[in-house]
Design goal:
The chain has 367 residues and is α/β, with parallel strands linked by helices.
């Protein structure tokens, strides 16, 4: 009887917990929706009056100052933030509203008192899915770092469905995820028979990975082991670079074949693809012989490590640079699914700063 009651309690707890979490999510969504609508509406009002010459120079600064006097302690309505609201409206108005504001609209805004609900732009509901599910801070970040509508919608959809933080969004904007995702040179069409799995595989990898946490003092290209060590020491950041659904299994993953040891540089598992993903790190340019070694590793992984319900393993050669035609020829007749990507490490100092700081040896002498 005690066991039955415990089971009933567990079921009740899970039911109530789900209801609480769902309620919190709905409340947060409604608050975010109202905040976006308010930002858009105020941005529209500011834009129509400041851009058309109804207000003089310094009007926004004056409005921000008076708002602080009227509502002491008010946050988020500085002159800078109000200008951001104007930008938010101006960047999205042509995609949200079906018509441009008329002269009558502007006259109405000037001649009549504006109630707060009049500023709430409810036609914002006409925008694409995901728009209302991300915060205004993320919207500002996307507007500042992107130009095309498709690119903005891409990042909005990713933020909404993968619950990106501002830090994660900034990372993917800097690494240009939109341009690099799905552009990986690969042989998936000839080695993966399932069309849906082909598509998922292509969308799971990028053409270039930003590893800006790798900061090697040597001016030469770092040795593979040094690069691997830096990645392992910053594995959380590297997984962020890879994207969602990657789990780290280990580095220098050991396989014993006929009394000989072989080691995979980095081994991951991807939940979406349900397969092992092997990374082979290479300094310098891509060379065709790299694929032969990776093909061997993938065959061994499939036989010795892969579980029966998992898909065949995928290999990624990660090198400093590659030539498209060389990669294309190297892929011919390879039986295992593979791709070739490049990496970019921390940027070097700008030329104007290179002579300002002493070199490493001089620093040692000074210390």
């Amino acid at each position: 009887m005690k066991e039955i009651k415990t089971n009933h309690y567990s079921e009740a707890i899970q039911t109530i917990k789900s209801a609480i979490l769902k309620s919190r999510y709905c409340a947060a969504t409604l608050v975010n929706r109202e905040l976006l609508s308010l930002n858009y509406g105020i941005g529209k009002y500011i834009s129509e009056n400041s851009r058309k010459g109804f207000w003089g120079t310094g009007a926004i600064e004056t409005i921000a100052e008076r708002l602080q006097q009227e509502l002491p302690g008010l946050r988020g309505f500085s002159a800078g933030n109000i200008k951001k609201m104007r930008i938010f409206f101006e960047q999205w108005c042509e995609h949200i509203e079906n018509r441009a504001p008329t002269a009558h609209d502007l006259e109405t805004h000037v001649d009549q008192d504006i109630e707060i609900r009049a500023l709430m732009a409810h036609d914002i509901e006409k925008i694409p899915p995901g728009f209302l599910n991300i915060g205004i801070t993320l919207h500002y970040e996307i507007i500042n770092k992107t130009t095309s509508l498709d690119e903005r919608l891409f990042y909005i959809e990713r933020c909404a469905t993968e619950f990106w933080s501002r830090e994660t969004l900034k990372y993917h904007l800097k690494s240009n995820l939109y341009a690099n995702l799905g552009k990986l040179p690969n042989n998936f069409k000839t080695t993966i028979s399932d069309k849906d799995l082909q598509r998922k595989a292509l969308l799971s990898f990028k053409d270039e990975y930003l590893v800006n946490f790798v900061n090697i003092e040597s001016p030469d290209e770092p040795d593979e082991r040094v690069l691997e060590s830096e990645i392992v020491n910053n594995i959380r950041k590297f997984i962020m670079s890879l994207g969602k659904d990657f789990s780290f299994i280990g580095n220098q993953y050991r396989m014993m074949i006929e009394d000989v040891e072989y080691f995979v540089d980095l081994l991951f598992f991807n939940r979406q693809l349900r397969c092992l993903v092997a990374f082979d790190l290479k300094r310098g340019d891509f060379k065709p012989e790299f694929l032969g070694k990776m093909n061997f590793y993938l065959s061994a992984l499939d036989d010795l490590v892969r579980l029966p319900h998992e898909n065949p393993s995928i290999g990624i050669i990660l090198c400093k640079s590659k030539k498209q035609k060389t990669v294309e020829y190297a892929f011919r007749d390879m039986s295992k699914p593979m791709g070739v990507a490049t990496y970019k490490t921390a940027s070097e100092l700008p030329p104007e700063y290179k002579d300002v700081l002493p070199d490493v040896e001089r620093l040692k002498e000074l210390l």
